[in-house]
Automatic annotation (TrEMBL):
<comment type="similarity">
    <text>Belongs to the universal ribosomal protein uL29 family.</text>
</comment>
<keyword id="KW-0689">Ribosomal protein</keyword>
<keyword id="KW-0687">Ribonucleoprotein</keyword>
<protein>
    <recommendedName>
        <fullName>60S ribosomal protein L35</fullName>
    </recommendedName>
</protein>
<dbReference type="InterPro" id="IPR036049">
    <property type="entry name" value="Ribosomal_uL29_sf"/>
</dbReference>
<feature type="coiled-coil region">
    <location>
        <begin position="49"/>
        <end position="76"/>
    </location>
</feature>
<dbReference type="GO" id="GO:0006412">
    <property type="term" value="P:translation"/>
</dbReference>
<dbReference type="GO" id="GO:0003735">
    <property type="term" value="F:structural constituent of ribosome"/>
</dbReference>
<dbReference type="GO" id="GO:0022625">
    <property type="term" value="C:cytosolic large ribosomal subunit"/>
</dbReference>
<keyword id="KW-0175">Coiled coil</keyword>
<dbReference type="InterPro" id="IPR045059">
    <property type="entry name" value="Ribosomal_uL29_euk"/>
</dbReference>
<dbReference type="GO" id="GO:0003729">
    <property type="term" value="F:mRNA binding"/>
</dbReference>
<dbReference type="InterPro" id="IPR001854">
    <property type="entry name" value="Ribosomal_uL29"/>
</dbReference>
<dbReference type="GO" id="GO:0000463">
    <property type="term" value="P:maturation of LSU-rRNA from tricistronic rRNA transcript (SSU-rRNA, 5.8S rRNA, LSU-rRNA)"/>
</dbReference>
<dbReference type="InterPro" id="IPR018254">
    <property type="entry name" value="Ribosomal_uL29_CS"/>
</dbReference>
<dbReference type="Pfam" id="PF00831">
    <property type="entry name" value="Ribosomal_L29"/>
</dbReference>
Length: 161
């Protein structure tokens, strides 16, 4: 979705392009009655396998469109829009989350291939390994423990056979 410049014939009117179609929307300041924004009727759940086939640029463009669409839906919600638009907010939010997830997965996969057979950076290592103490930290002892070991060393004895 793209929000174009104001319509020259009507100064309070904005032209929103959604899915190749132009919709006319009105600015909140210029509108006296409840604002009815035209939002794309083509909102459907996005299939993740289709997203994974897209390039990074296409995903970023889709993310920009979805964010613009959700902002229009939020304005529609505030100004008393139709109930079907309110239910679309959830679908668009999920779509934004899916696009962001696919973007981060692709980025991590690219990093994994770049670091193949090399030492992995911390964010690519498993969580348990990231949380693990270093060898130095694991070997440290408290002052009390050190004193106990020096004052009461392990008893050495031999049995007469």
């Amino acid at each position: 979705m793209r929000l174009n410049l104001q319509d020259k014939r009507d100064p309070g009117c904005w032209i929103a392009t959604i899915g190749g179609q132009d919709f006319y929307t009105y600015d909140l300041a210029a509108c006296s009655g409840p604002l009815q924004l035209a939002v794309s009727a083509e909102i459907a759940k996005i299939k993740v396998h289709e997203l994974q086939a897209k390039s990074k640029g296409e995903l970023q463009n889709q993310l920009k469109d979805l964010k613009a669409e959700i902002s229009l839906l939020r304005v529609s919600k505030v100004t008393g829009g139709a109930p079907n638009k309110l239910s679309k907010i959830k679908v668009v939010r999920q779509s934004v989350a899916q696009v962001l997830t696919v973007l981060s997965q692709n980025q991590k996969a690219a990093l994994r291939t770049a670091y193949k057979n090399k030492r992995l950076p911390l964010d690519l290592r498993p969580r348990a390994i990231r949380r693990r103490l270093t060898k130095h930290q694991g070997g440290l002892k408290t002052l009390k423990q050190k004193k106990k070991e020096t004052y009461f060393p392990k008893q050495k004895y031999a049995l007469k056979a």
